[in-house]
Design a protein that fits this description.
Creatininase-like_sf; two-stranded antiparallel ribbon; Rossmann fold; metal ion binding; mainly alpha; 8 helices; 233 residues; metal-binding; hydrolase
């Protein structure tokens, strides 16, 4: 269930029978022709669908993350590492103060990896808490399902192209894009990154059949639900 559909009394009642919650983390950054909010959209949606049968509350996705390399693409924003970690720490602390003890962080953006390390630090400080950091998109079963479709799955290409991340006014191009030089891109400042990426995709096909994407999504939801079910520390 979405926190947005609850009031404080609903959560107080919930906490008498369960102490789990979900904190999705995303990013607002260029995704070629897809929505700038792809990572937040996917993290929150997969969390909500995974948690719904279990009745576990899901917070709104944290929409901003670490994406300094996309700074030359208008609309992209990035937090500093210390800012993201401070926000994550405050969110976890607030959830714990409410009474949540088992917290699943569903992450939709690779740049947010430092939050996983922070979770370990927080558990060392507060042994009442059990925090799981779940990269939904490259968890083993979900990643295997994607690679069974095409091994080119990556940023801004078909792997992030779902009906709910597309923009009606920006249909996907036909064909495929040559892969970019990732080593060079990682060593380049934002303006050079934009030159290297062009439209923003890392290469490969821009879109795959919806039936293929539905299979990947179903695996992602199931694997996220399994993470929410445990085991917990």
């Amino acid at each position: 269930m979405r926190i947005a559909d609850c009031n404080w009394a609903d959560i107080e009642a919930y906490l008498t029978r369960d102490d789990r919650c979900v904190l999705p983390f995303g990013s607002t950054e260029q995704h070629a022709g897809l929505s700038l909010c792809v990572d937040a959209i996917l993290a929150e949606r997969v969390a909500v669908e995974a948690a719904e049968p279990l009745g576990v509350p899901v917070y709104p996705a944290m929409p901003f993350g670490l994406a300094p390399y996309f700074g030359a693409f208008p609309g992209s924003v990035s937090l500093r590492v210390e800012t993201l970690l401070a926000v994550a720490r405050d969110l976890i602390a607030s959830a714990a103060r409410s009474g949540f003890r088992r917290i699943l962080i569903v992450n939709g953006h690779g740049g947010n990896a430092p939050v996983g390390a922070l979770a370990q630090e927080i558990m060392a400080e507060d042994p009442r808490l059990s925090i799981r950091f779940h990269n939904w998109y490259n968890a083993p079963r979900t990643w295997a399902a994607a690679m069974a479709v095409d091994t080119s799955g990556s940023h801004g290409n078909w792997m992030e192209n779902f009906p709910w991340t597309r923009l009606a006014h920006a249909p996907a191009p036909e064909g495929t894009k040559p892969p970019v030089d990732m080593a060079l891109m990682k060593a380049a400042p934002p303006a050079r990154v934009r030159e290297l990426l062009g439209d923003g995709s890392y290469g490969g096909a821009w879109q795959k059949p919806d039936a293929d994407m539905a299979r990947i999504w179903a695996e992602g939801v199931a694997e996220t639900r399994a993470a929410l079910e445990g085991p917990w520390g």
